[in-house]
Amino acid sequence: MPSSVQSVADRAGVSVSTVSRALRGVPGIAESTRKRVQEAAEELGYVASLSASRLATGRTHTVAVVVPLLSKWFFAEVIAAAGRVLSRAGYDVLLTELSTPELRNAFFAAPRLQGRSDGALVLALQLTAEELAALEAQGQAVALVGSERAGASSVCVEDRAGGRAATRHLINLGHERIAFLGIQEAPGSTLGGVPPAERLLGYRDALADAGISPDPGLEFGVGNTVDAGSAAMATALTMAEPPTAVVAASDELAFGALATLRGAGLQVPGDFSVVGYDNHELAGSVGLTTMDHGVAEQGRLAAEALIATLDGAPAAVERLQPNLVVRGSTAPPRRLRAVSP
Amino acid sequence: MPSSVQSVADRAGVSVSTVSRALRGVPGIAESTRKRVQEAAEELGYVASLSASRLATGRTHTVAVVVPLLSKWFFAEVIAAAGRVLSRAGYDVLLTELSTPELRNAFFAAPRLQGRSDGALVLALQLTAEELAALEAQGQAVALVGSERAGASSVCVEDRAGGRAATRHLINLGHERIAFLGIQEAPGSTLGGVPPAERLLGYRDALADAGISPDPGLEFGVGNTVDAGSAAMATALTMAEPPTAVVAASDELAFGALATLRGAGLQVPGDFSVVGYDNHELAGSVGLTTMDHGVAEQGRLAAEALIATLDGAPAAVERLQPNLVVRGSTAPPRRLRAVSP
DNA sequence: CCGAAGATTGCAAGCGCTTGCGAAAGATGA
DNA sequence: TCATCTTTCGCAAGCGCTTGCAATCTTCGG
């Protein structure tokens, strides 16, 4: 059993309160005393009891990270980045995965964070007002990633501009029939682990800018998985007048699309162009042109924002600009290059 | 500020000790009393203070998950699976990423888990005896994934058999010049977030079984990244007598290899076969033949083992058998199919 | 040399919950 | 009806640390 303040106090010949103050660097303790206490503590291998100091102070120095789906690269990356800044700042990271609507509801129905953490970093979940209120009622400072709520700090991406840029890239290359692979929650899912339709809106913006009339048949809304992307792409290929390019709302969807295209014997980018969204770890290796939106940076910034909030700063929102990363999956449509046979 | 036991006690007209016992279901409380207390608690929205009960009991009901690199799919998947069983069992999950040797050393040098968690789930890190002892000295029950240590529970994979199976698959298809892309830590890295060379040994076993003399030039040891796999594959293609197939020690390496092959204009599996190891989330979409070793199951089993240990069960080790998943990246070498031109 | 301001340290009252032990009350058996 | 068990509860002593406030000791200006 670990030694207590008392034992250190005895050894250093001071009172427990002095030990407490000395070890925490509270001013008002003579430097000589402090040193003596520290030595005594060291010799005893003393480590202050967390539970005890938490009870006494009411602060846990812990931050809960709430995420819809841990195994998605995006979330893991954000958490990793956030975790680094949090732990450097002395906060523990409590992980909570809300992978089903049931878990989500249960989580918000009970004060599950009360006394467990000082703040919550909420990824992607589009919190309802009640959910946000529930967190605050539990005394949590909260910072959001990928959504925006009055009163809470957040970092989010200009997804509409991103969708627009991705689409414009294809338009600039000469494409006119451009499909959109969007992310759509399964109906009934309260997960909401998905950025809203901003990217789709950006896609429409770009078409409008270019005077291309939108074709609802080219807009696909599917689950955010490789397979779904694959299937949607297959459907697109069966159209009477198929697209020559696609912008996917995530790299995973794009991976699926690429797989289908390859399977169909189509060359990318020769016969078909695709641009993704995320700049996924593996996007480079498959040569996917994609929108980079600083995934790790989102985590870092959000963690910093949360820490600032915990230190009493007012809520602030940070907006990131996504950037196009051109790789090998986009090129002018074949039609144009075939002009001079 | 949340209400305390005292307020519930007052409201229910009983003593605090009765409230405590009633709410926790401790036997020795009349059912009627218990009900009354529960109602009072409910009406007050009472939630027991975690810190207080932790201080009083000494148990934290928290498990630390220690992982080398969160953003790797493998680890995220294991954590997700483990996290589900842990939280269902009432444990909180504390996340600790040890992504650099410095962080690792610092982590084990100080009793960083003391009072923070009841147990630790350690992924991939090949703990030294001292490190394991350090954890136990902090009162942690420990369970390992991907390594084995006397005295600790663990779940690991029969990697040697896996490497052998993967290689044999290629041999059975008729390949004879088979390269191996192995994972090798950067020198000086104490990370150890890598399974030992078991897979390589299995590869050699298979060659020996088939009477194929091993060529050290075909064994590559690189970092576990897509790019490294890509580079190693490129090197392999420059050999005087290049291989016709490769078994990669991870799917990420395999992805890299595939990228290089595609870039070189080689058909997979027509001109070259590749088998990976992991059954990565994206392996299916690129049609990669690979060894599945139940990643999520490893997490689940490890979590269960840890919980069992916390409940007083003796340490146990679970061994998983990897299975070959045949997809489209393997086929007989061209030489054989070109027999009848 | 003296009183006061300033620097250090100790006292003791929490923080909110758990638990061993004894008391009170109801049940049982002769 | 009385002694003996049981069943239910309350008392009070922690768990180990923090912190407001008072006590003690120095240091200084006059």
UniProtKB/TrEMBL annotation, chains A, B:
Q: Does the keyword Cell wall biogenesis/degradation apply?
A: no
The superkingdom listed in its UniProt entry is Bacteria
The GO terms this record gives for MF are: DNA-binding transcription factor activity; transcription cis-regulatory region binding
Domain HTH lacI-type, chain residue ranges per copy: 8-57
Q: Does the keyword Transcription apply?
A: yes
Q: Which residues form a coiled coil?
A: none
Pfam families assigned: LacI, Peripla_BP_3
Q: Tell me which InterPro entries the record gives.
A: HTH_LacI, LacI/GalR-like_sensor, Lambda_DNA-bd_dom_sf, Peripla_BP_I
What are the protein's UniProt keywords? DNA-binding, Transcription, Transcription regulation
- Report what the protein is called: DNA-binding transcriptional regulator, LacI/PurR family
Native species of this protein? Arthrobacter cupressi
